[in-house]
Amino acid sequence: MSSKYILCIVLIVITGFSEADFVFWFHDLTELPEYWTQNGFTFNSSGAYTHLWDEGWPDSKSYNCLKSDYLMIPPDLDSLVIDVSQFVTLFESGDISDYAKVTLYAEFNGCETVELWTRYIDDSDPQKGSLTDSLPIHATMADLNAGDLIQFIFLAEVSAGWHSYVELDWWLWDAQLTGYGMLSLVPRTWAGIKSAF
């Protein structure tokens, strides 16, 4: 086999792996991960769980949240992908101001918040007061700035109108944050490839 043919195969393999991924963290959420904070979530062998309900006497609002630790965006990162298995049930009694909502936000540098995923029900919802969803969360963030700090916030909230009732249950497990970017080949890598032939 000629050395040029082998060099072509090596270059194809290297090019195929030039898009690399890096798992920043994976948590099964059976316990609160280190440096994460929570309000109103519990943890067990099934993962993280929160339950909220509210009766409007008068109008009221309640929320629970789970916050990840901060991650500094490294250089040469093209995108971040967060994947989380989840199951949610939402219920509202039909008052005009009722709603139940679960949301995943990304917060950049402690000030800019971006909604990545949400499930929401209110009086105008065609589901007539209830919603169940078990599709995993899959959200991609691109055009990231190296050096920015990012934190993920899982927020559950309910608001009940006068003499009404809202409720939600939300389970989360197997949360993974993956970064994608170009691997830089340093000159000695190319020299090493050439000198092999």
CATH class: Mainly Beta
Shape: elongated
Mean pLDDT metric: 82
Unreliable segments of 5+ consecutive residues: 4-18, 183-197
Rg calc: 23 Å
Secondary-structure element pattern, one letter each: HEEEEEEEEEEEEEH
Q: Give the structural class.
A: mainly beta
Tally of helical segments: 2
Strand content of the residues, in percent? over 45%
CATH architecture: Sandwich
Topology, pairings included?
Elements: H1 3-16, E1 19-27, E2 37-39, E3 41-44, E4 47-55, E5 60-67, E6 71-72, E7 77-92, E8 99-108, E9 112-122, E10 130-133, E11 137-142, E12 149-160, E13 165-182, H2 187-195
Antiparallel strand pairs: 1-13, 2-5, 3-4, 4-13, 5-12, 6-12, 7-10, 7-11, 7-13, 8-9, 8-12
